[in-house]
């Protein structure tokens, strides 16, 4: 009889409750126990775990590695899926292996390339993957010059931090002056160039932004599973065009994603995003971690989180082809159970949260605005 597998997810996205659900419902019928840590006592990830702890705040990268090693040793972790402090953790892969823990994350070189979007764009362009035109800006004068050059080419300019995850800090530049129009309805990503310039001129320090043209839909996020031998085991694109979402196996999206995953050693799970620039796909971003929407691939008949854990354990699942592509769908919000009692403010030495069974929840139940999938 196969032994149970103990998996740890550190401070991760709420949507990864579905990642946890899929691990428990794995096709190998293997017993899986999940440990979770987070800085928010009301994270649904903590409620979904078998055991959980609050994470200490304010740790340096080195101190966080020590915290992580202690967790792995005390909790008997077989596979660790790091999000927070990923770069520091993968630099100590041998130390985790020494306590019996496999890291489900790329090697340090792969993480480092894609931490900085400028370095990433230069690197992927060198291996033949198209990227949009971009400018790295730190001052108001550099911003204005980049915006004017884009506008002269007929493009709308946008900017985002040169390092960072998701859409944090993304804004679209407009020439329209600030008015009541900007205060009506919901907050918008559009921001007046004059206001941005004024903010930069008054700031005490420089920014580090990437300015580029606003790319067009569809947006395609290619989820890849790559082995330590740099061979891709799975690549499926998730398409997004307004509310409508779907899946694709078209080469124009998958081939550049495979090239990036293999060329840069993005072992285990990564998410490689593309959008249209004119009539061709270009790289938008690379995430060296499981995507929050990874669970949606279950609509194609595959359990990718479990295949990744198998690969981390040395149990190669081989090349995985989806038996079918799910129909188009949309995403809506819904409730998710929390632990019965909220935990007080973070202590210097966090006390373990009591072990609790994961709530019975169908995979289609959503977390806040991210998870339930409904057919269109």
Spell out the key features of this protein:
376 residues, alpha/beta, six-stranded mixed β-sheet, five-stranded mixed β-sheet, 11 helices, 27% helix
Order of helices and strands: EHEHEHEHHEHHEHEEEHEEEEHEEHEEE
As a percent range, the share of helical residues equals: 25-40%
Query: Based on CA inertia axes, which overall geometry fits?
Result: globular
Largest β sheet strand count, sense and barrel closure: 6 strands, mixed
Kindly describe this structure.
By secondary structure, this protein is α/β, with parallel strands linked by helices. Mean pLDDT is 90; it is low at 344-350 and 355-370. The chain has helices at residues 17-24, 44-48, 61-75, 86-90, 93-98, 108-113, 117-126, 140-152, 193-202, 251-263, 304-312, and strands spanning 5-9, 32-38, 51-54, 79-81, 102-103, 135-137, 157-161, 171-174, 190-192, 209-213, 216-226, 232-241, 244-248, 268-277, 280-287, 329-334, 352-353, 368-375. Strand 2, helix 2 (44-48) and strand 3 (51-54) form a beta-alpha-beta unit. The protein has a 6-stranded mixed β-sheet. A 5-stranded mixed β-sheet has the order 6-10-7-8-9. It contains 11 helices and 18 strands.
